[in-house]
Every structure is written in C-alpha cells, then in structure tokens.
Specification:
This protein has 7 helices and 10 strands. By secondary structure, the chain is an alpha/beta fold. The protein has one domain: Nucleoside phosphorylase domain (Rossmann fold), CATH 3.40.50.1580. Helix 1 crosses helix 3, helix 3 packs parallel to helix 6 and helix 4 packs across helix 7. The longest helix has 20 residues.
Length: about 270
C-alpha cells in the first residue's frame, strides 16, 4: 500500500516560526484572566493532567479523588476541568472535544496554564484480529491523516509519545494485571472514510488501530516540549467487518480497569 501524504514518514513540512504567530494560547489566557480579574493559577490547571473524550470518565476520575470543578476554566459547562491530588501529586482531569482540532486547541490552553504532562485515556478501533475488543493500546508511533499536526510540523516534530510515560503506563497496567499492546496507530479526521482498502493496507503494515486524536497530540507534545502519552481501549473491531462494543458490559469493565490504571500510575509515579 502506498502511504498517503499525511503519513509521519512522508509529510509536507510547514515552517513553524514562533515570531510569526498572530496570537498564541498565552495571549488568549492572558485576555481571559484579565476579563475575569483572576490569575492564571486560579484557573486550576495542574502540571500533570489526564484528558479524555468521555465526560463520564473524567467525572468518575474526579469523584474518586474528590477533585473540585474549576470555576474559571474557559469551557466549564461543555468541557469541564477538575483539579485535585493523588498521593500528594497535583493533577487535573479534563474533558476534550472529539477530533484533533478541538483536542489540540484545549491542550494548547492547558499548556499555557502550566500543564507539562498530559495523559490521554480514550478508545480506538482495532485493525488487527490479535487485538480484540477490550484490549489496551499504547501508541508508540503514528500514521497521521488528520489536518492539525501539519501546522506544528517544522521538520523536527516527533509523532511519538514520551517514552518514560510509555514505560510508566505499561508498568501501572501490569501492576493491575493488564498487558498492553504497543505499536503504530492510524489517526484520521474522517471516521466514515475508513475504507476497506486503507484498513487492509494499514493492517498489513502492522498498524494496530485507528483513532481521531493521537498523532496531533503527539505532534503538539513534541512541538511544545511537554510529555504526552495515550492509553487507548479497543472499542470496536475493523479487521474484517465492523464489530462495535459500545454500551456493552465488556467495554464498561475495560473503562473501569483503565481508570484504575491511571489512578495507580498517578499514585506511584510522583515524578511524571
């Protein structure tokens, strides 16, 4: 299969000149805090943040540790932010919009407020028969077919996670009796254009699954020099026909286990 232009190995590079930015995430945060008469610290973004596209996941994580809702987050009603502590570690939990553009926009603003480590917890479709529903994936490289990361690619951007976070997540999962599968992931903007030919081609190349955010998140982490890593649960299978598991007890149980892994990681890896 010939890889599309959006593949991490054959991208069209866009020069990123920071001096040419018309306005920045910091500009927006400064405007917002001035409007509200608050400081950036009062927004409540911790250096370590866990993000998810499932609102109930974020609410559940916050509830377990007694985290408080941020009063001054820009998106409190639509995409709530919580801040609390796990074993003395300040941590935020944030709900993000589905898709690379909205995810990266909110992550940019979180970084401008002080986030330096961002761990994503989400779902992915599996391309491999050996990675069935309920499995846990850690993407270690990306095939990018989303449009956001190209705007961060100055020729030096990595489409890989922070590998110390990979190790920490894998260890936390093993501590909870879960083995994770590591490898490449396909990120797309168009879930209804996951063509059979693409699925087969990427499957033959060993790509594990598909989502809508990871490659852009990893590009942003590289560009802004922060740590990013995602833990993804297989929610549906695409290896042959489409086989979804949404709303099933199996996927709910996997979500619960994933939250246990994240909280265990936070409680034992105070240096993340």
């Amino acid at each position: 299969m010939t890889l599309p232009p959006g593949h991490a190995g054959g991208r069209i590079h866009v020069r990123s000149d920071l001096m040419d930015e018309l306005f920045t995430p910091t500009t927006v945060i400064d405007w917002y805090t001035t409007q509200e008469g608050i400081t950036t610290d009062e927004i409540g973004v911790a250096p370590v943040a866990v993000v998810s596209w499932g609102k109930r996941v974020i609410e559940s994580l916050a509830d377990v540790i007694g985290a408080q809702s941020a009063d001054y987050w820009l998106y409190t009603d639509r995409h709530p932010l919580y801040k609390g502590q796990v074993a003395g570690l300040d941590v935020s939990f944030a709900h993000l919009p589905v898709g690379a553009p909205g995810t990266v926009m909110l992550m940019e603003e979180m970084i401008a407020c002080g986030a330096r480590t961002i761990i994503g917890l989400g779902w992915a479709g599996s391309l491999q028969a050996t990675v069935p529903i309920g499995c846990f994936l850690i993407p270690t490289s990306c095939v990018s077919e989303e449009g956001t990361s190209a705007h961060y690619d100055d020729g030096n951007v990595s489409f890989a996670p922070a590998f110390d976070l990979v190790d920490a997540l894998e260890k936390a999962a093993l501590d909870k009796g879960v083995e994770v599968v590591k490898g490449p992931l396909w990120t797309t903007d168009a879930p209804y254009r996951e063509l059979r030919s693409k699925v087969q081609g990427y499957r033959d190349q060993g790509v594990l699954g598909v989502d809508m955010e990871t490659s852009a998140m990893y590009a942003l982490g590289s560009f802004r020099n922060i740590k990013v890593c995602n833990l993804l649960i297989v929610s549906d299978e695409l290896a042959d026909d489409w086989r979804p598991a949404f709303r099933t007890p199996q996927l709910r149980a996997a979500n619960e286990k994933a939250m246990e892994i994240i909280l265990h990681l936070l409680s034992t890896q105070v240096s993340i």
